[in-house]
Amino acid sequence: MINVGIIGFGTVGCGTIRILLNNNDLIKSRTGADVTLKKIADLDIQKDRGIVIPNGVLTTNVNEILDDPDIDIVVELIGGIHPAKEFILKALQNGKHVVTANKALLATEGQELFQAAGKAGRALGFEAAVAGGIPIIKTLREGLASNHYQSIYGIINGTSNYILTKMTDEGKDFKDALSDAQSLGYAEANPAFDIEGIDTAHKLTLIASLCYGIPLSFNKIYVEGITKITAQDVQFATELGYKIKLLAIARQVGKEIELRVHPTMVPVDHLISNVNGVFNAIRVIGDAVGETLYYGRGAGDMPTGSAVVSDIIDIATGKANTSNNQIGASTNNGYTIRDINDIESLYYFRFTAMDSPGVLSRISGVLGENGISISAVIQKGRKAGGSVPLVVLTHNARERDVMRAVNQIDSLPVVSKPTMFIRVEGGD
Questions:
Q1: Residue 421, strand partner residues
Q2: Residue 289 half-sphere exposure, CB side, CA atoms within 13 Å?
Q3: How far apart are CA 351 and CA 389, in angstroms?
């Protein structure tokens, strides 16, 4: 029998507890794992969560879990950095395996936690930290382990994807779409981690370390959120045959790894561009398997709870071991993180320029001087003596050249507002 103690009786805690209580016989029949939920610790054990908890299981004292020699697995589901970090370290020091869904903690403090797990000879499971119910960690660690990962593209934040879907399907501006997400509970009152790309970067940190054997590199990821995306940009993207998505991108280029999070225009006929609402999807390209796509709910009590329980089962059946704790430790493979200025991409520009003769030639001249060639142009409306949007789609260009060109164009007297630009993925 494997005894489990859960710290945190919130949304994910409820999902995990429901699965362990309701599906216990199913788990045992399929895996042979005899898992018992022994303790649940939370500051509020009076609130009715709609779950019947056996007598003696609830406690407000977390040490009843951390110091209980009969508890084999501690599940941390309170989120945040502190005291979650201290709880995990104490559990490991006391010889317990740990399962967590805490991507922010692992991305920023994971080096120490994974080292502590290795030293203790215990597993630290984190399937639920990335993409909710999609088993992407197990897929990357086991199912595709024989592959060199050429690239990983992911929609791994449901809040941002919901907002962009609303803007695309209903023509809403960013603020209205965010308000809708908040009213439905998809976005927090303070949604900064989601809409600024930070949550996505936390998850990309774990994926990149797992795939490329590099140290956890959250501080080296280029991060750009969706707050500057306008309904006008969404409309122009549609006319050009694209949708705008917030993507996490990891890509190997020689001995460098690109790690970036930013709004990206994706062709409408690509599978990932048709992932809508709060759903997540991760596209993985390996040298042996080719292109694969993983799709599902990236958040929620039951999908994320399912991922938590999958780690519990792996530990209970002996499939998880301390070799899985090597994430976050460099394997000395020589990879370095590529500077964002060195990446190459297609680009979308929206210039706000005076409606007068010769403007396009001046702008295109600056682009040409910086080695940037144009593949498409859209100019809508006329406003003699005023400013109108001028949209340009480029061929492949280097970020460094793009930034220099944008600075030069924004200084032209015929340009009245800062240029909006979005990177474009046209395929590998």
A1: 349
A2: 18
A3: 6
CATH number of the CATH domain containing 363? 3.30.70.260
Are 280 and 401 part of one and the same domain? Answer: no
Q: Which domain holds residue 397?
A: 341-424
3-state helix vs strand vs coil in the chain, percent to 5: 40, 25, 35
Q: Within 10 Å of residue 74's Cβ, how many Cβ atoms?
A: 27
Residue 187 and residue 225: Cα distance in Å, rounded?
14
Do 294 and 155 share a structural domain?
Answer: yes
pLDDT more than 90, % of the chain: 92
Q: Judge residue 238's burial from the number of C-beta atoms within 10 Å of its C-beta, 0-12 exposed, 13-18 middle, 19 or more buried.
A: middle
DSSP-derived letter for residue 413 is: T
Number of domains in the chain: 3
**Global pTM value:** 0.96
Phi then psi dihedrals of residue 100, to 5 deg? -145, 155
Domain end position, chosen among 96, 129, 162: 129
- Where helices occur in 184-257 by DSSP H, the ranges are 192-195, 198-212, 231-239
Neighbours of 233 (CB within 10 A): 22
**Catalytic one among 203, 220, 243, 245?**
203
- 246: CB partners within 8 A, 6+ apart: 155, 157, 160, 161, 164, 197, 200, 225, 226, 261, 262, 263, 264
Burial of 68 (0-12, 13-18, 19+ CB in 10 A): middle
Q: Residue 251: beta bridge partners?
A: 151, 258
CA 176, 178, 180, 183 torsion-angle sign: negative
Phi, psi of 20, deg, nearest 5? -65, -35
Q: Render pLDDT for 49-97 as a digit per residue (tens, 0 to 9).
A: 999 999 999 999 999 999 999 999 999 999 999 999 999 999 999 999 9
Helix (H) or strand (E) holding 84: helix 84-93
Q: Is 166 in the active site?
A: no
Burial class (CB within 10 angstroms; exposed 0-12, middle 13-18, buried 19+) of 249: buried
The backbone torsions φ and ψ at residue 77, rounded to the nearest 5 degrees and listed phi first, read -135, 30
> Which SS3 state, helix, strand or coil, does residue 259 take?
strand
